[in-house]
Design a protein that fits this description.
There is one protein chain. The protein is of the alpha/beta class. The protein has 2 domains: 6-201, TIM Barrel (Alpha-Beta Barrel); 210-290, SH3 Domains (SH3 type barrels, Roll). Helix content is 19%, strand content 35%. It has an 8-stranded mixed beta barrel with strand order 1-2-4-5-6-7-8-9. Strands 12-11-15-14-13-10-16 form a 7-stranded antiparallel sheet, with no helix packed on it. Strand 6 (123-127), helix 5 and strand 7 (144-148) form a beta-alpha-beta unit. Helix 3 (70-84) packs parallel to helix 4. The longest helix has 16 residues, at 104-119.
Length: 291
Amino acid sequence: MIRPMIIDISEWQRPDQIDYPLLAQQIDHVIIRVQYGSAYCDKFYQTHLQRFQELGVPTAVYAWVRGINHEDMAQEARIFFERAKIFRPSFYWLDVEEQSMTDMRGGVEVFRQTLKQLSGGKIGVYIAHHLYRSFNLAVENFDALWLPSYGNNSGSYHGVQPTVNKNYDLHQYTSNGRLSGYSGTLDLNRLTDRKPLNFFTNKIQDFAAWGIAETGSFTLQTAVYLRTAPTVHAKSIALLQAGQTIYYDAFSHEQGHVWIRQKRADGTYGYLATGPSDGKKRTAPSWGRFN
């Protein structure tokens, strides 16, 4: 399972169908819909926010944007802020998935500016992949960019990435995700290596919670990159050579590989892929020997 695990939910995920304590154990951040335009308030956003905050899960909020002119966009921003402010969300997101006015670039910028003035918080934008180029939003003005790209939408991440802009910070990689604590499907998201989790949560990540704790050593039989995060897209720390041994304190099946974690002298962690995985078990022999 990818960690940090970030989900986004709305009223489609009913509270009476969620085991909040169990689901909370598997996620690091949740983004909750507050409204669909200014006229429609999400039925369960308050319950979702209260329950996850009680369980210590950092919470952000999003609004589906539907303003029909600049003034309407500003009004949507004001209503969004008023509905969410009591929960002190760690991040605000604008969800732009429909053309509600001709000047979407200008309208969304008015929404962003109004919300920024009211909240003083960080604001990101989610843009439908097929509308990205035609909307031509001023993404450079936002604090973060969130893009969807599903591939075969199997529920797991298999390396498919958004193509409309390479400089994105959050990737929604499936709408068919499954996690214990909820029997239905979930939108699952992964971070890129551009911003750490605490940029979005205002909370220092608990690295000790990653993966499954296990101590041991691994001797490589081929050269493999040691990386800053458990993904092949993360920055390389070093290229370890065949015959080298790495000591690890945890492992996890995620992003197509079995990863082990090395605690480094400066207090940070390095992550090494040890062979392919389907997310639950190895699908081929490991690239070395466990000792």
